[in-house]
Automatic annotation (TrEMBL):
The keyword Protein biosynthesis does not apply. It comes from Streptomyces mobaraensis. SUPFAM superfamilies: Winged helix' DNA-binding domain (SSF46785). PROSITE patterns: HTH_GNTR. It holds the Pfam family GntR. InterPro entries: Tscrpt_reg_HTH_GntR, WH-like_DNA-bd_sf, WH_DNA-bd_sf. It comes from the Bacteria. The keyword DNA-binding applies. This is GntR family transcriptional regulator. Keywords: DNA-binding, Transcription, Transcription regulation. GO terms for molecular function: DNA binding; DNA-binding transcription factor activity. Residues 12-80 form the HTH gntR-type domain.
Protein backbone atom coordinates (compact mmCIF):
# COMPACT_ATOMS: atom_id res chain seq x y z
CA UNK A 1 0.00 0.00 0.00
CA UNK A 2 1.12 3.57 -0.63
CA UNK A 3 1.47 6.21 2.05
CA UNK A 4 1.06 9.75 0.75
CA UNK A 5 3.28 12.68 1.64
CA UNK A 6 2.00 16.19 1.02
CA UNK A 7 4.48 19.02 0.49
CA UNK A 8 2.53 22.12 1.51
CA UNK A 9 5.37 24.39 0.32
CA UNK A 10 5.50 23.01 -3.23
CA UNK A 11 2.76 25.20 -4.67
CA UNK A 12 1.18 22.04 -6.13
CA UNK A 13 -2.41 21.33 -5.10
CA UNK A 14 -2.61 18.39 -2.65
CA UNK A 15 -5.02 16.45 -4.87
CA UNK A 16 -2.49 16.70 -7.73
CA UNK A 17 0.28 15.50 -5.41
CA UNK A 18 -1.80 12.46 -4.45
CA UNK A 19 -2.68 11.67 -8.06
CA UNK A 20 0.97 11.99 -9.11
CA UNK A 21 2.16 9.78 -6.28
CA UNK A 22 -0.30 7.07 -7.32
CA UNK A 23 0.78 7.42 -10.96
CA UNK A 24 4.44 7.20 -9.91
CA UNK A 25 3.74 4.07 -7.85
CA UNK A 26 1.95 2.58 -10.87
CA UNK A 27 4.93 3.36 -13.12
CA UNK A 28 7.39 1.85 -10.65
CA UNK A 29 5.32 -1.30 -10.21
CA UNK A 30 4.66 -0.51 -6.56
CA UNK A 31 0.92 -0.69 -7.20
CA UNK A 32 -0.60 -3.36 -9.41
CA UNK A 33 -4.11 -4.05 -10.74
CA UNK A 34 -6.36 -5.15 -7.90
CA UNK A 35 -4.40 -3.34 -5.19
CA UNK A 36 -6.51 -1.17 -2.92
CA UNK A 37 -5.60 2.46 -2.36
CA UNK A 38 -5.74 3.82 1.19
CA UNK A 39 -9.21 4.96 2.18
CA UNK A 40 -9.91 8.68 2.34
CA UNK A 41 -10.08 8.34 6.13
CA UNK A 42 -6.61 6.74 6.22
CA UNK A 43 -5.13 9.44 3.98
CA UNK A 44 -6.71 12.20 6.08
CA UNK A 45 -5.32 10.65 9.27
CA UNK A 46 -1.82 10.45 7.75
CA UNK A 47 -1.71 13.83 5.98
CA UNK A 48 -4.23 16.10 7.75
CA UNK A 49 -5.85 17.15 4.46
CA UNK A 50 -9.53 17.48 3.73
CA UNK A 51 -11.27 14.22 2.77
CA UNK A 52 -12.75 15.96 -0.28
CA UNK A 53 -9.20 16.55 -1.51
CA UNK A 54 -8.49 12.82 -1.38
CA UNK A 55 -11.76 12.04 -3.14
CA UNK A 56 -10.96 14.61 -5.84
CA UNK A 57 -7.59 12.94 -6.49
CA UNK A 58 -9.23 9.52 -6.66
CA UNK A 59 -11.88 10.86 -9.08
CA UNK A 60 -9.13 12.23 -11.33
CA UNK A 61 -7.40 8.85 -11.28
CA UNK A 62 -10.72 7.17 -12.03
CA UNK A 63 -11.33 9.49 -15.00
CA UNK A 64 -7.86 8.61 -16.27
CA UNK A 65 -8.81 4.93 -16.13
CA UNK A 66 -6.17 4.07 -13.55
CA UNK A 67 -8.41 3.19 -10.60
CA UNK A 68 -12.02 2.36 -9.94
CA UNK A 69 -14.20 3.08 -6.95
CA UNK A 70 -16.15 0.10 -5.63
CA UNK A 71 -18.96 1.41 -3.43
CA UNK A 72 -18.66 0.12 0.10
CA UNK A 73 -15.30 -1.53 -0.62
CA UNK A 74 -12.83 1.21 -1.55
CA UNK A 75 -10.77 2.36 -4.51
CA UNK A 76 -8.79 -0.22 -6.46
CA UNK A 77 -6.09 -0.08 -9.12
CA UNK A 78 -7.54 -0.85 -12.52
CA UNK A 79 -4.34 -0.94 -14.60
CA UNK A 80 -0.60 -0.70 -14.25
CA UNK A 81 1.72 1.79 -15.91
CA UNK A 82 4.84 -0.26 -15.15
CA UNK A 83 7.23 -0.98 -17.99
CA UNK A 84 10.22 -3.31 -18.00
CA UNK A 85 13.23 -1.39 -16.75
CA UNK A 86 11.19 1.18 -14.84
CA UNK A 87 10.46 -0.87 -11.72
CA UNK A 88 11.59 0.40 -8.33
CA UNK A 89 14.09 -2.48 -8.13
CA UNK A 90 15.40 -2.21 -11.70
CA UNK A 91 19.09 -1.97 -12.59
CA UNK A 92 18.38 1.39 -14.27
CA UNK A 93 17.10 2.82 -11.00
CA UNK A 94 20.18 1.52 -9.19
CA UNK A 95 22.41 3.19 -11.80
CA UNK A 96 20.48 6.43 -11.46
CA UNK A 97 20.76 6.30 -7.66
CA UNK A 98 24.52 5.81 -7.99
CA UNK A 99 24.73 8.76 -10.39
CA UNK A 100 22.72 10.93 -7.97
CA UNK A 101 25.12 10.03 -5.14
CA UNK A 102 28.10 10.97 -7.33
CA UNK A 103 26.40 14.26 -8.22
CA UNK A 104 25.89 15.00 -4.52
CA UNK A 105 29.49 14.10 -3.76
CA UNK A 106 30.57 16.50 -6.52
CA UNK A 107 28.80 19.30 -4.66
CA UNK A 108 25.61 19.55 -6.73
CA UNK A 109 22.40 20.32 -4.88
CA UNK A 110 18.88 19.10 -5.70
CA UNK A 111 18.16 22.03 -8.02
CA UNK A 112 21.42 21.48 -9.92
CA UNK A 113 20.62 17.78 -10.37
CA UNK A 114 17.05 18.59 -11.39
CA UNK A 115 18.30 21.01 -14.04
CA UNK A 116 20.74 18.42 -15.39
CA UNK A 117 18.12 15.67 -15.46
CA UNK A 118 15.57 17.94 -17.11
CA UNK A 119 18.02 19.01 -19.80
CA UNK A 120 18.93 15.39 -20.58
CA UNK A 121 15.27 14.35 -20.65
CA UNK A 122 14.49 17.23 -23.00
CA UNK A 123 17.34 16.15 -25.30
CA UNK A 124 16.39 12.47 -25.27
CA UNK A 125 12.61 12.74 -25.27
CA UNK A 126 12.00 16.03 -27.06
CA UNK A 127 11.01 18.74 -24.63
CA UNK A 128 8.67 19.05 -21.70
CA UNK A 129 6.30 16.17 -20.94
CA UNK A 130 2.63 16.56 -21.84
CA UNK A 131 0.28 17.65 -19.05
CA UNK A 132 -1.18 14.19 -18.70
CA UNK A 133 -4.47 13.61 -16.97
CA UNK A 134 -3.71 15.96 -14.07
CA UNK A 135 -3.70 19.72 -14.18
CA UNK A 136 -0.38 21.35 -13.37
CA UNK A 137 -0.16 24.29 -11.08
CA UNK A 138 1.59 27.39 -12.45
CA UNK A 139 4.32 27.13 -9.81
CA UNK A 140 4.92 23.44 -10.47
CA UNK A 141 8.44 22.66 -11.60
CA UNK A 142 10.83 19.87 -12.46
CA UNK A 143 12.12 19.75 -8.90
CA UNK A 144 8.76 18.51 -7.64
CA UNK A 145 8.71 15.80 -10.29
CA UNK A 146 12.21 14.74 -9.31
CA UNK A 147 11.15 14.58 -5.65
CA UNK A 148 8.07 12.45 -6.20
CA UNK A 149 9.80 9.17 -5.42
CA UNK A 150 10.84 10.59 -2.06
CA UNK A 151 7.16 10.71 -1.16
CA UNK A 152 6.19 7.13 -1.97
CA UNK A 153 6.50 4.66 0.85
CA UNK A 154 5.24 1.14 1.26
CA UNK A 155 3.24 0.24 4.31
CA UNK A 156 2.86 -3.29 5.60
CA UNK A 157 0.48 -5.13 3.25
CA UNK A 158 -1.68 -6.18 6.17
CA UNK A 159 -2.57 -2.62 7.23
CA UNK A 160 -4.94 -1.85 4.34
Amino acid sequence: MVEFRIDRRSGVAPYVQIARQVEQALRLGLLMPGDQLPTAREVVAATAINPNTVLKAYRELDRAGLVEARPGLGTFVRRSLARPGAAADSPLRAELAGWAERARAAGLDRDDVSALVTSVLDECFGGAPPGGPYATHPTDNATHHANTTDHIHHADEGTG
